[in-house]
Amino acid sequence: MIEHKVYVDSNGTTPIREEVCQLITKTLKSGWANPSSQSDDADVAAQLIKVSRERISKVINCCEEEITFTSGGTESNNMVLNSISKLYTQPHIVISAVEHDSVSACARNLAKQGLISLTEVELNSAGNLLPEDVAAACTSETRLVSVMLANNETGVVFDVATIARLVKKEHPGLLVHTDAAQALGKIPVDVAVLGVDYLTLVGHKFYGPRIGALYHRLTAPLVPLLFGGGQERNMRPGTENTPMIAGLGLAAQLASQGLSHHSRHMLKCRDYLESRLLETFGDKLVINCKDSPRLPNTSNFAIFLENCRSVNVLERVKFVASKGAACHSHTATKPSQNLLNSGVSYEVAMNSIRVSLGINNSMEDVDYIIEDLIRVTNELAQL
Question: Beta strand 212-216 with 198-202: parallel, antiparallel or unpaired?
Answer without folding.
Answer: antiparallel
